[in-house]
Amino acid sequence: MSHTTLENLFRFPKVPEFAQKNFTEHFLHADKVMLVLIVMQWVIATFITSISYGTYLYGFVGGGLITLVLLLAYRTFKGTQVMRALVGVGMMLFSLIYIQQHLGRIEMHFHVFIALAILSLYKDIVPIFVAAITTILHHGVFNFLQLSEVSLFGMPVMVFNYGCGMDIVILHGIFVVAEALVIGYIVKLQIEYGVELNRSENQVLGLNEELSFTSLHDSLTGLPNRHNLYTQLRLMVANANRYDRKFAVLFLDLDHFKNINDTLGHNVGDALLKAVARKLKSIIRENDIVARIGGDEFIIILNDFTDTGAIEPVISKILDMFHKEWNIQNHFLRLSTSIGVAIYPDDSKEINELMKYADIAMYKAKTEGRDQFSFFTATLNAKVHEEVDIANDMHRAFNANEFELYYQPKIHIESGKIIGAEALIRWNHYEKGLIPPDHFIHIAENTGFILKLGKWVIEETVRAIKRLSESGYEDIHISCNVSTRQFQNINLYADIENAVHDSGIDAKLLAIEITESVMLEYLEVTLEVLKKIKNLGVHICMDDFGTGYSSLSYLRHFPIDSLKIDKSFVDDITHNSTNEHILLNTIIAMGQTLNLKVVAEGVEEMYQMEYLRDRGCEFYQGYYFSKPIPEKFFFDLLLKNCASSGTDRDLI
Ligand code: C2E
Ligand code: MG
Ligand code: MG
Predict the structure, then answer these.
(1) In CATH, which superfamily holds the domain spanning 226-376?
(2) Quick one: which of 155, 420, 465, 596 has the most CB atoms within 10 Å?
(3) Which span out of 55-64, 321-330, 611-620 was modeled with the highest average pLDDT?
């Protein structure tokens, strides 16, 4: 046996805290069992053991005394070590009673051993040692009383019915200690096993707890997840119904979060989401809820209010909170969020619907310029339903050839010549009549239908160019709009290339118009695709310039041929205005510096055209010259224009 094992043998285990509760329960139970055993011993001492010797009185009174004391002690000490020690004493005093009743004839160690073994029911060494000491002590005391010839109940006090000396007492003491050691060791093993059981049970419990936490919380931010949110919402509905209260579902979506992720990397994005989660948690009240249900989407539930007006300041506070500068891993970021609000029970009494409505309202906040909140309304809902109808109807319309391209001429300001046109899509709905693109392009983008529609636009534009060439207009270029979403399509380049090659047109007669958002999203891939398109000979025009993120560095890096100044700048030019439009002038100058062709769109008045001309803008497009018109009318217009200004055209 090694040293450590030996040491271990005598190191009695302590019950650690996590197992304490279990052990205490066990002790309480054991106390009851012990009391039953004590009462049984009393019955044995009174009747069974007394049959042959007539010592009933001794057994009844002596056993009764022990039993009574223990029953009384139980009331105060149950479950404690004191109770266990007292039970140990009680058990052993019974052996004394048996001896006194002439039963020493039967080897009393049998009783001592059984009693000690029974005491091992307590997973505690103390009662066993107390019992052992009691046994040794009463042997000593009774031996002394016997020698002094003392009588009890008219009987001489006996240690053994045959009488003995101190040597026998000592021998018995040694037996008892040996028994106590053996049983003590068994108890030690029991405790260790019991603690081990508790430890594994505890681990299982801990694991369960951890599991239930992760299944209910978002792993990145630690906020409740969607599943958890719905559970809490169901409780809230019950609560709101009972107390006639309302609650608000706030649907938050961070503005331009994707840009942060794309430009600064996912680490920064994740850190930002965590910071936002912390901040949101810190500003809501205790009985409100904040949850994360997707990428950059958070839900806040504002609880317990009776008047809708009361929540507006809270929402403004949330919007403001985003405006401060965020320092994320040493990047100073500006942030904003769009919030949609739906109220229970005003907007809906159904949780899924409520969430959907809050989402719809959020979408409205986004489309109205972001960084704001919007309440859900029935009109909004109707609009969404209409959009769903449109989305569903587009496929049918496509197959029924209801889409058509209109053409709006582009004019060389100086000469007044038509140098080309922009192809703009129209939907000739069999029932609703002409639907402008503003009503369906964004829906087509959201549903992905734009990929199919956009491909058709490119092909149709190319066909139009071919028809123009075949009619003798070999230098009229046509541009078509390519939506940002189309850059997600890996076939975009192939589609353009095939269209150009299959038709055999000169690639430089085709132009695509893209918006600044193209540059922000999918930066790397987009740049590659654009370069390939440009290498094909196709012109690239930056549409609606000045409304987005107009950054010079973007323009430098992108293979752009022309710049189309957004209509809003042109709108600012008013009649008789002597004001200089600094921004507009700068954009024109910037375009010239970068050697780009500059086109102004939305020119409705002559003075607007003149202003632009005087500042060096070369081309324009607008109602002043012509609205977008069907192909046939465009041909007529070309014919007229050629007659008035010759055929020498500049290409854009
Ligand atoms: P955009 O590319 O900026 O097109 C210019 C829009 O301004 C056109 O509206 C045009 O009709 C309008 N416009 C032109 N001159 C004037 C003017 O003097 N005054 C006013 N008030 N408006 C003028 P439209 O045709 O309704 O198209 C709206 C937008 O829909 C387009 O803006 C473009 O972003 C998108 N779109 C149109 N066709 C297509 C297409 O085939 N594919 C894609 N992806 N988007 C398209
Ligand atoms: Mg355009
Ligand atoms: Mg435009």
Answers:
(1) Reverse transcriptase/Diguanylate cyclase domain (3.30.70.270)
(2) 420
(3) 611-620
